[in-house]
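Hey everyone, long-time lurker, first post.

I ran two proteins through the pipeline my lab uses and got sequence/structure pairs for each. Pasting them in order. The first:
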Amino acid sequence: MSDEVPERPPGSGLVQALRVPRNGAVGVAVGVAIAVSAYLARVFELLGPFAGTREYPGVGPEGWFLILAFVLATSTALLVTSVLTVIEAARLARRL
């Protein structure tokens, strides 16, 4: 019996095959673009004034919309990256 741990193949091959870095960059770009456009539309009232009168404690409406824009950007980036990676995995599976 040997106490040596067998070497594992590098995991970067799968990451590169599924083009995860490119998908991540596209996801971040789409997420940021959507979040910036939503933030600008809300803060500068490009779609008209905000319908309700609300209290925004602490940071004011711009701060709360900025926090929401960050959440929108990150969730959209993750969604787009996941969808693109699944599509790439399906293409690779069909090719094999």
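...and the second, right after it:
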Amino acid sequence: MNDPAPGIIPFDSTVIHSDSVDCSKPINRSNLKGKAIVITGGASGFGKACFEEWASHGANIIIGDINDKAGTELVARMRASTNNPNHHFIHLDVTDWPSQASFFKQAASLSPHGGIDCVMANAGVAIAPENAGFEEPPDYSTMDSPAAPPMRTLDTNLNGVMYTTSLALSYLSRNPGSERCQIGKDTATRDRHLILVSSIAGLASLPSQPIYAAAKHGVVGLFRALRVTTPIKHGIRINMINPYFVDTPILGPMGAVVLAGGGMATVPDVVEATTRLVADQGIIGRALAIGSKTSAEDARAMGLELQTKDQAVWDVHADDFAQSDLFVRRIIGVTNLITQAKGWAGFVSDVARKVSGATWKALGY
């Protein structure tokens, strides 16, 4: 390998992540059997659909949701249909840290093997009035004590995911009987896996939905940071899904009307993509975008290559981020060159100037 340009630090060869996901490869659903899987926001939408699919293949599912009625009814139905008593519902408000901490503690205690194999950080909302009010705020200058704009969308979709992720890293790294993730090892009894649910809005702009887009961009940023360090530090594999618009409760009736007649993703395709990530333990540090089914002709017109007929699932990371990663590395490289040029003398000079300024300020000058 050629030496990198001056100032550019090459990627560490110890980084653990797998190659692009082959969506034509059959999914080994038998690898779901016996896994203890936790899903936040599991009473509806993607969480509910994944629960139904994974439970049918022998996984033990523990869901958390703010909707007690829907969660309780879903678990009762799935226990009956699978003849498996190891499905559970626990009340969960992802915006509340004590609620999440209690949820994870109960989930681990309810697991047949006392641990958690996979966490799906799925809970999310899209509150249209919040986004509209953010873009068209009132005249704050006329108010003495204006109320803060509501941010439940941000609290749920980003802060809630941050809480879930922190707890997931703690519990997954201590999953009894589990091994550290390894490239090429796609099957194991126990797993250490975190799935982040972002959106196409985490990869592109979404006009009229600034709070939602900001939250989902935050999830992508979280993924990009953790995909490098988490497998090394904790042996936990982290993956992400980025669905296009799907007709689920989060979209709302007006969203479905606006998108009527246009291409949309489907819940079964989202479930298939997520199932592939869960079932194949050799997939590490990848993200899948789920869109509408694409013909070979349309794919070629957009510069894409189909792996399967009418493909709807695409690997979006790390290859699609390579350009921006290279740009960032170059910016850092410039900083490195400046630092190298300054040397220790420049470092000492900068520190002395900062300390001197702070000292004079402390003396009142």
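Reply from user beta_strand_b:
Welcome! Quick read of the second one: The chain has ten helices and eight strands. The beta strands are 36-40, 60-65, 88-91, 118-121, 193-197, 237-243, 287-294, 311-317.
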